[in-house]
């Protein structure tokens, strides 16, 4: 029997360059979608918690924004969130995309792991895209950079190798009581996840700088239990009026599509019918304004 005091219990940060598959891995380990995923880099902007529970362990995962060379205030804040998460955790999963060569900038990123006492596992993700030889040469290159406690090739998308990853992770985490109740998969509110789902649809349905110039604010979130209906009002903030036009689209078609796709996923999340009303507002250069960035909850 495992008592509440002697289970394996730890916090784990998933860090790495943008687009490596960090959010995909978190969702895959949880068996449910908590973090949004898109093919575009810099999708995740916050620290998103996902909690894995079993009879003999609790692993609290922190999905983080991609670590990159940031210039704009919003990006600097995102990288800070990722790096700060390193100080909160018992272990680090450093995730990279093996279909890309090991660039100079990864070498700089690995430096952030140096001098820390927590163990770090190197996760080579997207192995479905490369052959074994490429994998072996990458393993050698990373071994020269840093002493990882282990190196695990996986495909987060196809859930391949993730069982081995969990086994390795449980070996390096401490024992202790659960940090969170057993029945909650995340500390994120439904409100926050709804705003992220809307942002995901914007990332998927718009191009160029638009995704990076948008933020989503939930203005109201009202549940009518009798009707089994949740009414959500949300504002999409953009930086320029030209972007407002693009998000709205011809006769409102783009905004309608964003709303429709988002509503579909939010209904699945809440297991209720959802009425989603979206507005678009210009908030000049908000990505450069620390005050607004803070107001948005970063
Ligand atoms: N082929 C393949 N694609 C993957 C795999 N894992 C993730 N992807 C894809 O890679 C893209 C980025 O995935 P995300 O999970 O959003 O990556 P991320 O590291 O969270 O990205 P940011 O939040 O932007 O830093 C998406 O298109 C995923 O479907 C994988 O194992 N194989
Ligand atoms: Mg992500």
Please characterize this protein's 3D structure:
This protein is of the alpha/beta class and 298 residues long. The chain has two domains: 7-176, Rossmann fold (3-Layer(aba) Sandwich); 190-295, GMP Synthetase, Chain A, domain 3 (2-Layer Sandwich). Helices cover 34% and strands 24% of the residues. The chain has nine helices and ten strands. The chain has helices at 22-30, 73-85, 104-110, 132-145, 162-172, 190-205, 241-248, 253-270, 290-295; strands at residues 7-15, 48-53, 57-63, 91-97, 120-125, 150-153, 175-176, 215-224, 229-238, 273-282. Helix 4 (132-145) links the parallel strand 5 and strand 6. Helix 6 runs antiparallel to helix 8 (253-270). The radius of gyration is 20 Å and the shape is globular. The model has no long low-confidence stretch (mean pLDDT 94). It binds guanosine-5'-triphosphate (GTP) and magnesium ion (MG). Magnesium ion binds next to helix 1.
Question: What is the CATH-assigned architecture of the largest domain?
Answer: 3-Layer(aba) Sandwich
CATH superfamily of the largest domain: P-loop containing nucleotide triphosphate hydrolases
Overall pLDDT score: 94
Task: Examine the coordinates and then state which fold CATH places here, giving the name of the CATH topology of the largest domain.
Answer: Rossmann fold
Number of helices: 9
Instruction: Give the helix proportion (percent range).
Output: 25-40%
Taken in chain order, the helices and strands follow as EHEEHEHEHEHEHEEHHEH
Total count of strands: 10
């Amino acid at each position: 029997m495992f008592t509440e005091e002697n289970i394996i219990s730890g916090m784990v940060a998933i860090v790495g360059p943008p687009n490596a598959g960090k959010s995909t891995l978190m969702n895959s380990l949880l068996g449910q979608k908590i973090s949004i995923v898109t093919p575009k880099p810099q999708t995740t902007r916050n620290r998103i918690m996902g909690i894995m529970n079993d009879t003999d362990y609790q692993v609290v995962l922190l999905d983080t924004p991609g670590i990159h060379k940031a210039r704009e205030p919003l990006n600097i804040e995102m990288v800070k969130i990722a790096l700060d998460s390193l100080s909160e955790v018992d272990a680090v999963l450093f995730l990279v995309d093996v279909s890309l060569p090991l660039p100079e900038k990864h070498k700089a990123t690995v430096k952030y792991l140096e001098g820390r006492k927590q163990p770090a596992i190197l996760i080579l993700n997207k192995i479905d895209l490369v052959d074994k030889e490429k994998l072996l040469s990458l393993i050698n290159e990373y071994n020269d950079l840093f002493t990882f406690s282990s190196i695990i090739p996986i495909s987060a998308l196809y859930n391949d190798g993730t069982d081995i990853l969990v086994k390795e992770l449980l070996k390096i985490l401490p024992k202790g009581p659960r940090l969170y109740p057993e029945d909650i998969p995340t500390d994120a509110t439904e409100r926050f996840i709804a705003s992220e789902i809307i942002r995901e649809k914007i990332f998927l349905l718009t191009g160029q700088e638009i995704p990076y110039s948008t933020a989503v604010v939930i203005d109201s979130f009202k549940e009518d239990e009798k009707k089994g209906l949740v009414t959500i009002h949300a504002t999409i903030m953009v930086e320029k009026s030209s972007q407002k036009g693009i998000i709205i689209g011809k006769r409102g078609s783009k905004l309608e599509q964003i709303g429709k796709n988002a509503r579909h996923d939010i209904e699945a999340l809440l297991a209720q019918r959802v009425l989603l009303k979206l507005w678009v507002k210009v908030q000049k250069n908000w990505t450069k304004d620390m005050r607004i960035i803070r107001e948005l909850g970063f």
